[in-house]
């Protein structure tokens, strides 16, 4: 795409960051022998390309730069993946060439704009580029981001990424985003007391459970009908969510730490939610409410509908850290419903 053309598409030539989710094998292909491939991509595209550390089955590849540099980097990645497909086919009996597939990680608050009213935007993208585009219905674990999968020929993928960039620039993320961080492959950790724990994050659970203990609740400012967390509270919630593991809800002790019980005492907080919005918090067959329970470590009870009442009572029980995180996740669901994404 010529820079002049980029400019004509709503002043598009600005700095942007796009995050990609890749498997280890794909990352290896992008890095190349002694890092030669990624070095070449950085030099030729002029984009910053960072690859997350860690022995994770999944890695995040972050591409930052002016939009034309991002498109060049995407083109090089897409063509590299196509080359890998062609090479793997020479050793297999398969005759039809599978499409190139890239997975973008996009803040959930922008996914509504990518999909469009009644799916109109995503349909238009598919038809105009020839690429398949799918937006995941659920958020990635412990984050407020969703995976957007694009597959097709490298040319179709590049055109599709250009259109996605336009939408993302026109509809910036709303509120704070908790970025997805792939979970490391579990390795045993031996503590000074001799206990062995497979989950290194649990070591800091005691400290983290105290993280929000002294924060006054509720830590929300009311704007219109919906509660927005204070920025400093969000930073702490963000740190909390980064460390959270689905297996050890924060503030609960584990058998691996027989002598450890540094959890603040449990307290209870109540919310009232309009009946017509309760569905977006519960989710299909309770999937969303279970996700919130798992991520926050709080106990959450939703009262039955009272006759003649237009609201439902939600009772959240746990440490202040658990409650704050549960409140934040519930508010994130409400906000997504109000901005037209709640049906996804």
Entry keywords:
344 residues, alpha+beta, six-stranded antiparallel sheet
Helical amount among residues, as a percent range? 25-40%
Shape, per Cα inertia axes: elongated
The major β-sheet equals: 6 strands, antiparallel
Radius of gyration from CA coordinates: 22 Å
State the secondary-structure class.
Answer: alpha+beta
End-to-end distance: 33 Å
The percentage of residues in β strands lies in 15-25%
Could you state the order of secondary-structure elements as H and E? HEHHEEHEHHEEHEEHEEHEHHEEH
Main sheet: strand order: 2-3-1-4-6-5
Ranges with pLDDT <50 over ≥5 residues? 1-11, 187-229, 241-263
Total count of helical runs of at least 4 residues: 12
How many extended strands?
13
- The average pLDDT value, as a whole number, equals 76
């Amino acid at each position: 795409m010529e820079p002049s053309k980029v400019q004509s598409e709503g002043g598009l030539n600005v700095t942007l960051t796009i995050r990609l989710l890749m498997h280890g094998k794909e990352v290896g292909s992008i890095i190349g022998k002694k890092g030669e491939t990624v070095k070449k991509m950085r030099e030729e595209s002029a984009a910053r390309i960072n690859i997350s550390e860690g022995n994770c089955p999944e890695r995040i590849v972050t591409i930052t730069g002016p939009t034309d540099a991002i498109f060049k980097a995407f083109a090089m990645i897409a063509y590299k993946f196509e080359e890998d497909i062609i090479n793997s086919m020479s050793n297999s009996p398969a005759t039809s060439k599978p499409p190139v597939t890239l997975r973008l990680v996009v803040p959930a608050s922008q996914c509504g704009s990518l999909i469009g009213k009644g799916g109109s935007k995503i349909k238009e993208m598919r038809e105009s580029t020839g690429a398949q585009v799918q937006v995941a219905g659920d958020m990635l674990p412990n984050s407020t981001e969703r995976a957007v999968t694009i597959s097709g020929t490298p040319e179709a993928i590049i055109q599709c990424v250009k259109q996605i960039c336009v939408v993302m620039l026109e509809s910036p993320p709303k509120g704070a985003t908790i970025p997805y961080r792939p979970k490391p492959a579990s390795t045993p950790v031996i503590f000074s007391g001799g206990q062995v724990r497979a989950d290194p994050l649990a070591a800091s659970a005691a400290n983290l459970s105290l993280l929000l203990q002294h924060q006054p609740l509720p830590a929300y400012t009311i704007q219109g009908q919906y509660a927005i967390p204070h920025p400093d509270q969000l930073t702490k919630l963000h740190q909390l969510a980064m460390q959270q593991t689905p297996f050890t809800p924060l503030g609960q002790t584990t058998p691996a730490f027989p002598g450890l019980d540094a959890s603040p005492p449990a307290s209870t907080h109540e919310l009232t939610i309009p009946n017509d919005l309760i569905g977006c918090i519960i989710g299909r067959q309770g999937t969303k409410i279970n996700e919130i329970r798992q991520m926050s470590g709080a106990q959450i009870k939703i009262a039955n509908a009272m006759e003649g009442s237009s609201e439902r009572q939600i009772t959240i029980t746990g440490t202040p850290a658990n409650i704050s995180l549960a409140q934040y996740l519930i508010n994130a669901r409400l906000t997504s419903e109000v901005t037209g994404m709640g049906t996804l």
